[in-house]
Amino acid sequence: MAHEREISEEQAFLDRALDALENMRDEARSLRDSAAVATMRGAGDLVERDVVMGTALSRLDQLAIGDQSLFFGRIDYLDKDELPGDTYHVGRLAVSDADLNALVVDWRAPVAEAFYRATGVESLGLARRRHVAIRGREVLSVEDEYFANEFGELQLPDDERRNATDEGLVEGGLALGGPGALLAALGRARTGQMGDIVATIQGEQDQIIRHPLAGVLLVQGGPGTGKTAVALHRAAYLLFTHRATLERQGVLVVGPNPLFLNYIENVLPSLGESGVTLSTISGLVTNVEVRGRDDEEVDRLKGDARMATLLARALRTRQRPLRREVSIPVGRAIVAVRPEDTVDIVERARRRPGNHNQRRSAVGRELAARLASRYHHRFARDVDDETGAINELADQIRATHEYKQMLQRIWPRLSGQDLLHDLFGAPALLRAAGRDLFDDEELALLERPRSATLEEIRWTKADAALIDEARVLLGPRKRPRSLLKSVDTGVLDGVDLDSFAGDIRAAAVREAQSLTSTVSAELDEAEFVTYGHIVVDEAQDLSPMELRVLKRRDLTGSMTIVGDMGQATTASSSASWDSVLEVLEPRRSPTRVDLTVSYRTPEEVLDFAAPTLRAAAVEVDPPRPVRRAGSVPVVELVDPQDFASALINAVRRESDFVAPGRVAVIVTAARVGELVEILTTAGIAAVDPRDQESRGLGADLVVLGAEGANGLEFDATIVVEPAQIARRGALAGEKSTPRGLRTLYVAMTRPTRRLAILATRGLPATIR
Hints:
By secondary structure, the protein is of the alpha/beta class. The chain is built from 27 helices and 23 strands. The strands form six sheets. It has a six-stranded mixed beta sheet with strand order 3-4-2-1-5-6, with helices on one face. A six-stranded parallel beta sheet has the order 9-8-14-15-7-16.
């Protein structure tokens, strides 16, 4: 326990810092209120008002930390030349007093690095690092770590007594920053939402967070290493360090599913960053609602990189000359379109630059001009303005219904959904496009019955990536639609908006849009939004086609790729990190780093799960644990008729052990509803967190499909029928598969405290 004197010292500082923070908020509120009532006399005043208001609101948003601690640490540098060393308090945001003296430094500032990086071997000039536990406006405890100077001496207060404890720590000499604070954070009950780790970031994590912006950073980390939290803190750090660039270019965070995004959505706001886009891969593909689910073999095929070639070939089969003559009525005459008229036009169009829908206009214009010229020279040779007459006649031909129908056969205007629907619904098209690319069995798997309308199709996650690919080949179907805004005119007459720069110009444009008649463009679904930095979590589960979706959103080549090949569980998972990078094609040499220490997952769980990881034939070493939970995993093998009662007893037992923590029951996805019903019937409130009407992961007890458990954590986990999970994707007669074993490994490494196994049909060899 820390001395009362030290707690009192930090309490006095906290009171002072909170008062300074409130003064900063008052200044921002005053700025906001003055802008709201300012007199507007012209365009310049309007622009100034917009800038001031935006600045004030942004500042208030940054200063809103809710009930989280203002600061959590302090670093004292060694005395020099008989002068006391500098002291800095490290917190969520920078706070200064009325005289602009820094009281708290932002955790992302360079001066704060020593708080996370200092070790006994390399003190970085520190004499002391202090972890401060705060709840609301009260300091609860203080933990001090002292470092030796160049002579090996400690600068301790005269009455200092160090009461270090290694309770719960694994022996072995891992250098941990603030072990007491770290264990306290890990020991707290889960809340159903990922929290930030800003107060307990360790040295290897901090190096990743502060890695330079440029290029691709690949982070491999096993269960409990904090890779997701590190990736999110890196996004916050990069925004802080490169705000001028990244606020303009945007930051994208991609997760594996909506449940995972809900789990992490509070982390960045808690770090003061709310301008980050969170999405799944499917969410990046606009106007496609994912409602279906592919069989695993179909999912694997659709994610294969060969699908890009298949789509390109399929599109080429839609660019075809006429097979028979077509008649086009023009006035009282009939213009005949012969197949030979279209052969060379189609061939030339195929060689033109640009995408399919852009080239359609050229095909239509060239063919209409050819027909008009033939008609003119046959029936109207004595016209003075021959060129004008031909052009006018060509416009008449293009306007006819018959011509539009013919052009749609020759060079159809298509959306990505159109191309995919037509391809999968026509075996002949599939065979023509897939010849020498897929075998007959694979092509048969891709076939599906045609739907009457696109709205009826139950698109799958893999379909979304294919539609995105098709949109690149096709391009926008239409020009941007003009939306006229009818408002007061003349307010900005004589004001040159281009004379403003940066944020001022952006504000001027916003005022112009609200005060004058302007035309705004609506993006076509084939026009992609790009980002200055992309963070991808659970990247090991992305297929090559999904990685291509990401690559298209990459503006600068700056990405943070996070995952664990030992937890690759989807049918279309990439085979290795090398194959991931091969698809992404980094513009400069990528950097790979490994997170080797598991802070969340206890030693008992990692040791229990290690044989399963080894059996999955993945060349990935399990992480080293830093703590023990004090309870070994429980394995129960029961008769099938006793399964319901055994499940109920196991849930009640684990819930009592970890209360008020949260418990997850993990089973194959097909059995989630069955287990929820068993528990609900017994009077136990269990929910499927995917249910929009439920509390989601905030519920005390959830039942999860093993296929969607990546990245989540709970106080206790009950894995049901592990042999079924281990058989994921198995063929007849197979007992387990590498992918199934990896899925089981993920399921077993979700708890921070307790793991239980419940089975009726035997156990995988790795658990026996």
